[in-house]
Amino acid sequence: MSAEAISESGARNEFWDGVRLSMPVVVASAPFALLFGAIAVDNGFSVLEAFLMSALIFGGASQMVGIELFGQHVAPWLIVLSIFAVNFRHVLYSAGIGRRIAHWPVLQQALGYFILTDPQYAVAEARAASGQSVGFVWYLGLGLPVYVFWVAESALGAVFGKLIPDTHALGIDFLLPIYFLGLVLGFRKRPLWLPVVAASAAASIIAYRTVGSPWHVSIGAIAGVLLAVILPPHHSGVGKRP
Amino acid sequence: MSTTFWIILAGAVATYLTRVGGHLVISRFDNIHPRVEAGLNAVPAAVLTTLVAPAALGAGPAEWAALIVTAVVSLRGGLMAMFLAGAAVLILARQFVG
Predict the structure, then answer these.
(1) Mean pLDDT, chain A, integer
(2) Which domain holds residue A33?
(3) Stated pTM of the model
(4) Which of A144, A82, A67, A85 is closest to A111 using CA atoms?
(5) Contact B39 A89 (CB under 8 A)
(6) Are B3 and A21 an interchain contact pair (Cβ–Cβ within 8 Å)?
(7) Same domain, yes or no, for A133 and A58?
(8) Which UniProt keywords apply (chain A) (predicted)?
(9) Is ipTM beyond 0.85?
């Protein structure tokens, strides 16, 4: 077996490792993609426009907000600003994951940032935290199925619009919080985990009740991150080297 | 081109800026201060918590049961196991408490 063949089969394994980890995300986001498509058409989008929005933005919550505002005939610039606000948390993901993928070629990085969603970030960050390197092939294996299913199911939802039966009984409105809780708990071994989670939870709940959605996401996240920055470094497990 | 198309396109550009922007800002610094690094390490738990906490507070018994089971399973199982367990409890519980 030549070295090239070995590295090629290694890359294939990496890819399927990523695909395997993408499955919970594909399952959890499926109802939302279908729902998005259905709501989009309901709010005056064509099937093509619903498809395009999923293919180009690829951010579930922001698409839902955008569609909702579009349906209420809000000014276009305000819709775009709202999409930006909902997605603003990605700035933090971007800063965090940049450390892990800086060794990739620029075009691969550009693509990597395009598919940088909540679960993509969390799973990649968890892999880096466990001491494994975050390779492009693995990252693509993790993100590509989510993207393909998201776009296809959005179009499907748009075509079949109102065929989804009782969404409440199927629990689809609460699948993502369950999935995100699983991700949060996956980081529980990190230094400062509990104080950060407590600060973010409190701040996001207060912001949700006062300022309102979607700002509670950015405000809550900044509260948790600020706490980690403010506490002395010996608590946060970095800068221990003499 | 329709207004809808331009909204989608501008939304896509705005979204991509958020996904690449943090990296572009941070990469300008040669070495990262320990406090900044501590902040970056806190990002996943901080952001994901905000996607759970308000939703959990506004929910009912069925959702709480699902979250508790998810948390318990997470002590032992992997991500898929805890997700499926939480989803199963949610669907089951909603048949009874709506």
Answers:
(1) 86
(2) 3-189
(3) 0.72
(4) A144
(5) no
(6) no
(7) yes
(8) Cell membrane, Membrane, Transmembrane, Transmembrane helix, Transport
(9) no
